[in-house]
Amino acid sequence: MAAAPDEGFFGVKTLADAIDYMARSSSGKPVLINRETTTRDPKVAKLYKEALASERFALASHWFHCVKVGDEVLDENHPLHPLFADRNPPALVMLSPDGKKQVSFLGTTQQKVAWTPIASMLATAYKKDPTGAVKDLEQLLCKFDKIDGEQTELNAQLERATKKQDNRKITAIKQKLAAVEVERKQAFAEEEDLRKLVLRSEPTDD
Questions:
Q1: Do 121 and 113 meet the contact criterion of CB atoms below 8 Å apart?
Q2: Cα(156)–Cα(169) distance, rounded to whole angstroms?
Q3: Alpha carbon distance 88, 85 (integer Å)
Q4: Helix (H, G, I), strand (E, B) or coil at 146
């Protein structure tokens, strides 16, 4: 998950000011705060690692303004401390763009990362359906895997044909590789379109 360091909180004293700072930095995106630490309960740490490795979570993270913090937020003087003041501080905190909606994950093993609250948070900031988009993106990733497999196999065939100096086969394989490349470019264009959920803060065309 790409994340910005918390250097921007320098000089910010309150949670309200921190949320305002993040809102201005996020360009209207919801905020995802990732608390890194080496002192988590092992069971929570396992769930945390699995969540970050999840394909769907990784796809969704691109629609958040991601902020990485450490255990400094457990200090009651830190502006973000109120978000982590529970007896079992969460590993991940999501905030709506205005800071009014908050969802926490992995303070305990009961607070597992789930798609429904993530989609609900994204819906506060975006016009398009995040669930439909992420499902289409997951299918598209399978398509990319298929394209990669075809390209690998064709390159292997081309190498064998080149060694045998089989010009007819070389020409045929190169044509197939060109077609696979066209398919890849089309998939990239589709991916770019699917990632555009359209922020609610963006002006609409009249």
A1: no
A2: 12
A3: 8
A4: helix
Evaluated on CA atoms 192, 194, 195, 199, the torsion sign reads positive
Amino acid (1-letter code) at residue 159: E
Q: Count the helices and strands in the chain (H runs, E runs).
A: 6, 4
* Per-residue pLDDT of the chain in tens (206 residues, 90 and over written 9): 544 444 446 577 888 888 888 888 888 899 999 999 988 899 999 999 999 999 999 999 999 999 999 999 999 989 999 999 989 999 999 999 888 999 999 998 888 999 999 999 999 999 999 999 999 999 999 999 999 999 999 999 999 999 999 999 999 999 999 999 999 999 999 999 999 999 988 755 54
Backbone φ and ψ of 199, nearest 5° = -65, 140
CA distances for 103 relative to 70, 113, 124, 146, 186, angstroms:
18, 10, 12, 36, 36
- Length reported for the chain: 206
137, 144, 173, 186 from 181: Cα distances, Å: 19, 11, 12, 9
Label the pairing between strands 65-69 and 31-35.
Answer: parallel
Phi, psi of 29 (to 5 degrees): -80, 155
